[in-house]
Amino acid sequence: MADYGHDLVFGTFLTPQAANPADVVALAQLTERAGLDLATFQDHPYQSAFLDTWTLMTWVAASTETLKVSPNVLSLPLRQPAVLARSAASLDRLSQGRVELGLGAGAFWDPIVAMGGPRRSPGESVTALEEAIDVLRQMWDVTTRRGVRVDGEHYKVIGAKRGPEPAHEIPIHLGAYKPRMLRLTGRKADGWLPSQAYMQPEDYAPSNARIDEAAEKAGRDPREIRRLLNLNTDDIDEIAQLALEHGFSTFILGSDDPYAIERFGKEVAPAVRAIVTEARRQRGTTTGPVGRNAAVKAQRMSGIDYDAAPVESVEPGDRAYGKVRSTYMRKGSPGLVLRPANAEEVSQALIYAREQDVPLAVRSGGHGISGRSTNDGGVVIDLGKLDRVAVDGDAVTLGPGARWGNVAAELGKHGLGMSSGDFGDVGVGGLATAGGVGFMARKHGLTIDHITGAQVVLADGSIVRADADLLWAIRGAGGNFGIVTEFELTAYPVDKVVFSTMAFDARDTAQALTRWGYRLEHAPRELTSFLNLVVQQGVPIIQLYSVFAGDDAEAAIDALTPLLEIAPVLDQQAQLVPYPAIVAPQGGVHMGGSPTAIRAGLADHLDEATAGGLAALVQSGETGWLQIRTVGGAVNDLPGDATAYAHRTQNFSVNAVGRTMERINAAWDELVYPHMNGLYLSFDTDPRQERIHDAFPEPTFSRLRELKAEYDPDNVFRQNFAITPALEGAQR
């Protein structure tokens, strides 16, 4: 007796007749209306009376809403696996995760050869199928920059680019009957898909045993492999017995009869579910997600009680690990990534993380330049699932895991905007607790200047609405005080803006910087400009990105024209665009690997001394990339004590990427630091504790220490420029 405890799935097995193509589409739509989960289709590319299965699946997916689609089974010899991987991932993304993949090693070799395919022996066909699975899995895995490499006997893919990534992990089911195919199913597949017509009842147990044995030898739990069956019966008791005695959990009715399909969905499936549910209750059958297999558990790290994780988690060895281990700038190797879905789960995750003997990091979008939202060997609380974006009038509620590109797109639908960063994949949580220097900062200020409320999980796990003191601290030093699970902001009207790009020969670097800085300080507030200084083939080049926050083209031209005088122009263009287009979401997987030796500072002006120091830094060769963002304007309208971000007199935010922390520190400290007045903390990776005083000058720092003693006395949140709690006598 075998019951693997899988949830029950019901579907149809339809014939893709070409004579009346609308009929098979109608049967698939009926499958969905009848409450069934899955529609599958024969695949015989050499059969001219049939529609092409992949084209049909695409059409069906577009004409249904919830129905999953799958070939049953795909003729691999006529489907090149690298191209199939792209096709499957594309359809999965278009259908929002509704693709499954049934594969066959091949049959009917004469027509396959007639179509230009290979003729393979039984052994060769199994080997080819295994190689194809490797190609598919690698093509879908976008967590590495390395190209796909499968140097097989039948499929050679040497360096192909990966992607696109499917919307979900596409399960691969194998149509298998013989021992080698069954063993392959156990080693590498997600499901076994035989047909009832080709098997005898006494075949089920030995076939399952072969799959299970192969799975265990591969370090897998046999329950990882779903057992599917193409049915030639709709008898309720027989199907229930197949589930309870032989482990099948997906039942696919082979019929093109609309009455049979409707009965299968509305009568048979509910009845089978009821019988199986009650029998499992009486037997005490374990159901639900399958735990980690031995191969994954072998990669666990010390100091973490993995089995006690209270919320969804990802650990080394899981397929999803590559997607959550790193940030945009830093490649991390955390021991466990927790993925809570709401404030209550964030609280549970935090309490659990405090009990582990490893470092803690908290991540929203993962773009953070400092790289502090991952670690090596520790626990990461990933807030990516808390990605709510809700707009009511000009009031906006945001989850910390939302990315600003998606926020801007949603605000744009309502004629609203929020100046936040310059890249669409920046996470809300990190930016909205540090400052938020965006492309409209001089017109509208920082992101934190528009935050009116917040829900916060404190260090002890309590969930609170931020009071006045906590809200003050969150706006600029939020990473030190808790995990914000919801932000309330007030947006402002934004329609189209003028976006300009310019490039200059910056051989006279100091003069170009001084001219640009002077013009920006005297420009209308609608103009915000970001300057990137890079060295290309030994020549300093300025790349200038500017936004005029308004749709008055003549006023924009008047504001932008003086910038053309800062240095010899190499290129220029400007266009009127919706603001969300400037910070469009990228949606990519953060894989780290970029330099994380970065220094940052704030400058009141780009006078000759400051510009000379920056030019000398570039000329020293210790940085290949320098960025200066304009602040000032509306940023400086607030007094210095209005938020924990106290820097309300400076006009420029500067940061530079170095090759190593030691070398960039030496050059920066000598050439640039004397001209700086403060620090935007999220852009600096210098670990020296004295940087805390650059980020939080007095009296801000003392007030933060007093509040830290109240809200986080154990200094749990110390990953991002740790503010130590004040001594007990100084507590409020």
From TrEMBL:
PROSITE patterns from the UniProt entry: FAD_PCMH, OX2_COVAL_FAD
Sample GO molecular function, one term: oxidoreductase activity, acting on paired donors, with incorporation or reduction of molecular oxygen
UniProt keyword terms in alphabetical order: FAD, Flavoprotein, Oxidoreductase
Signal sequence residues: none
Cofactor(s) this protein requires: FAD
Superkingdom classification of source: Bacteria
Domain FAD-binding PCMH-type per the UniProt entry, residue ranges: 330-494
Pfam families for the chain: Bac_luciferase, BBE, FAD_binding_4
CDD domains, A to Z: Tetrahydromethanopterin_reductase (cd01097)
InterPro entries on file: BBE, FAD-bd_PCMH, FAD-bd_PCMH-like_sf, FAD-bd_PCMH_sub1, FAD-bd_PCMH_sub2, FAD-linked_Oxidoreductase, Luciferase-like_dom, Luciferase-like_sf
Family according to the record: Belongs to the oxygen-dependent FAD-linked oxidoreductase family.
Protein name as catalogued: FAD/FMN-containing dehydrogenase
